[in-house]
Amino acid sequence: xxxxxxxxxxxxxxxxGSFFTIWTGQAISLLGSQMVQFALIWWLTKTTGSxxxxxxxxxVGVLPSVVLGPFVGALVDRWNRKRILLFADSGIAVVTLxxxxxxxxxxAQVWMVYLALFLRALGGGFHNPAMAASTSLLxxxxxxxxxxxxxxxxxxxxxxxxxxxxxxxxETLEVEGVLGVDVFSAFFAIIPLFFIxxxxxxxxxxxxxxxxxxxxxxxFKEGLRYIRGWPGLIALLTxxxxxxxxxxxxxxxxxLLVQNYFGGGALQLGWFNSAxxxxxxxxxxxxxxWGGFKKKxxxxxxxxxxxxxxxxxxxxxxxxxxxxxxxxILLVGITISLTNGPINAILQSSVDPAMQGRVFTLxxxxxGAMSPLGLILAGPIADMISIQFxxxxxxxxxxxxxxxxxxxxxxxxxxxxxxxxxxxxx
Length: 426
Known about the structure:
The chain contains 17 helices and no strands. By secondary structure, it is mainly alpha-helical. The protein has a single domain (19-200, 211-416), classed as Growth Hormone, Chain: A, CATH 1.20.1250.20.
């Protein structure tokens, strides 16, 4: 029998102690991961100076979630979520350790970094939906929006210290030293999972299924049917398709913008990342304390308009306007928390817990389906025209969706989905 204990019915309602122990360990591990990401991207920037290389690095990082995400979600709903977290965190640590060895021995090549980024993203593709699906069973529904706000302020806010710390460690420990720190930090995420139970929703349909491949395919189709029966989610995904195709490449090119346009180095790139993190903390705390508008989607749309303004500041900045551009990134950080937090809360409170692994990863995969196309186009165009082009384009499109979304009946009814929706048969 699966453990279906809910946070509301658990003994003495001790959900907070269990959840925040796991959450804190994951946050420490994330700090190490963000330092690794910073170190590897800056190494690629200094080594190649190519927009194509940077967008390719981002591309290999998003491919696992785009291509495998829908099927990963079905597996998350079928397998034990605690074991998924354990294997994912451990696998990422092993990959990082091997890459550190190549740097230490002087063997590191660009393709090796690509491979490591791909494998780390693959582990994250299993880890993230498993953690998201577990959160809704560890945390009472009435606290989910605030937890999402705290997630934004803590997890994204780690950029405040991870980027400057990553830059400092690069000067003292080199790339392999930063990778080693990440391996050590992974133990903080792994150890609590051995001692804290994570509820596993009971899914009676799984016992009736045949082979793993057949059952995963059936789970995948069931997730699609669930999404198709939710018009508001379809509208959200359509909007996300175009936004991710434009916004993702713009931010993947930020290291080159700092180095080639503003004439900065690793420290200045750290300032930009820290500004985003500081903004994410501010936005997350604001959402955590305030809770947003009564209609959560209104908060998200207002946040989207703020993202557009921030991107516009960066896109139209001159070479001497580094500080205003950092302010623009700060604004993006604030408003991205206000955009994503309510959306995550809507999904976690509306989707049946037994379906959340499938739905979360399908939503992530479908929303990012156009990102590879944007990344493929962004590198050559940025090398030929300018990096600012993508920020200006992102500003215009994001502003259009931010304002236009208020006039979409389907999008405005996103949170009207029943908590146990039955999707229509195909």
